[in-house]
Amino acid sequence: MAPNKRLITLTLSGLALLLLPLVVMQFTDEVDWSPSDFLVMGVLLAAAIFIIELILRRVVKKQHRVALCIVVLLVFLLVWAELGVGIFGSPFAGS
Description:
The protein has helices spanning 3-25, 35-58, 62-85. By secondary structure, it is mainly alpha-helical. The protein has one domain. Helix 1 runs antiparallel to helix 2 and helix 2 (35-58) packs antiparallel against helix 3. The longest helix has 24 residues, at 35-58.
């Protein structure tokens, strides 16, 4: 896949993920995101997407690409979990 097409695909995937809570909020009160929640998640998604794109463009060996992308996704998920429920109890999450 061409780098620009891949970046567009990744970006649209990130936007679709960001729209999920917005759609769910229309049907239930279980999800209650503020505008700042969307902003923070947008920044996290954008950072993860662009770091993954950078890895895919710069790293030559496939094994290294996969390993680095997995690390980026794990860091993304850990930061998201920390912000969401404070699994580590850090001041970063407001604990």
